[in-house]
């Protein structure tokens, strides 16, 4: 399900972000890297490089989990490698 706000953007506003469950985030304890839909899974994949090395294993695993849920094909060898750590 692709989400579009009233302006046609897939960007989440503060209220939409607050309404997400912790499990909708790549890093739930920080509520960082929101992934409520396929577009945001792809965004998290593209922003993965900005995560710290400590964050990357959890983030990679959560990206892959959400990608499977939304039918997104993750081709990044970097994410696949970090998910195994």
Amino-to-carboxy terminus distance: 30 Å
In spatial order, strands of the major sheet run: 1-2
Strand tally: 2
**Low-confidence parts lasting 5 or more residues at pLDDT below 50?**
none
Structural class: mainly alpha
Question: Which overall shape is indicated by the principal axes computed on the Cα atoms?
Answer: globular
Name the beta content range.
Answer: 5-15%
How does the major sheet shape up?
2 strands, antiparallel
* Tally of individual domains: 1
- Count of helical regions: 4
Structure keywords:
85 residues; mainly alpha; 4 helices
Question: TL;DR?
Answer:
With 85 residues, this protein is mostly helical. It contains four helices and two strands. The protein is globular and about 35 Å long.
């Amino acid at each position: 399900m692709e989400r579009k706000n009233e302006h046609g953007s897939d960007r989440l506003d503060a209220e939409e972000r607050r309404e997400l469950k912790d499990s909708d985030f790549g890093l739930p304890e920080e509520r960082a890297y929101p992934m409520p839909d396929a577009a945001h899974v792809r965004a998290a994949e593209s922003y993965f490089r900005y995560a710290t090395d400590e964050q990357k294993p959890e983030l990679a695993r959560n990206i892959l989990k959400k990608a499977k849920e939304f039918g997104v094909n993750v081709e990044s060898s970097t994410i696949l490698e970090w998910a195994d750590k």
